[in-house]
Amino acid sequence: MSFIENLNWRYATKEFNDKKIDADTFEKILTAIRMTPSAFGVQPYHITVVENVELKKTLKPYAWNQDQIDTCSHLLVFSADLDTKKRVDDFLRLAEEAKLTEITNDPEYDYRKEFNKFVKEMGSEWSAKQAYIALGFALAACAELKVDSCPIEGFEPKNYKKVLNLPKNLEPKFCLAIGYRSDNDTHIKSPKIRFSEKDLFDFR
Ligand SMILES: Cc1cc2nc3c(=O)[nH]c(=O)nc-3n(C[C@H](O)[C@H](O)[C@H](O)COP(=O)(O)O)c2cc1C
Description:
Layout: H1 3-9, H2 23-34, E1 45-50, H3 53-59, H4 67-71, E2 74-81, H5 84-97, H6 101-104, H7 111-144, E3 148-152, H8 157-163, E4 170-179, H9 197-200
Antiparallel strand pairs: 1-2, 2-4, 3-4
Helix pairs in contact: 2-7, 5-7
The structure holds flavin mononucleotide.
Flavin mononucleotide binds at residues 11-12, 14, 66, 150-154, 174, 192.
């Protein structure tokens, strides 16, 4: 199937069946997320993977009781990482290890200082924007692997943070439920609603 055919195959799944995603397939989805590009490469986010059935049941009421939460195989909770100073330091350490000398040894430009200044000014919404790019890549990877998915913004970040006992620097922004569509999911029959090319684009 081509990329475009995959996009037509996928839909926001409302109910999953009880089939688990196998380890090999799941690893590919994680790789797509890990390989997603981000501004400056600092990937200012973290993903909490929830597989535990009881934990998913506890989280469900804090996401409008949506069935995706406790029927999915894996629930991925994407958080913005607000500790951008540490993220920049860790990134520069990786760059040093990879001998990316144009960044680490540039005598003209103090990357550490400039990175920190930039990411501090950008704030948590900027971190979330970077995480949304990873969401897009994950959705595309799932479609290619014939794994069903549903992005979820309809949830209570504060309660998710509490239930998952996330550290102070992590701020949940959205979730991604993945698994395999249930035969009960009538949503698959919904027509795809998309604005026309004429509406979305203009050409100059
Ligand atoms: C960022 C984001 C958040 C979303 N949140 C929810 C949600 O909380 N619950 C839900 O059922 N669908 C959610 N959706 C799914 C959209 O409603 C769906 O993708 C859109 O209507 C297009 O339909 P399709 O994905 O089936 O083509 C979300 C989608 C995105 C991209």
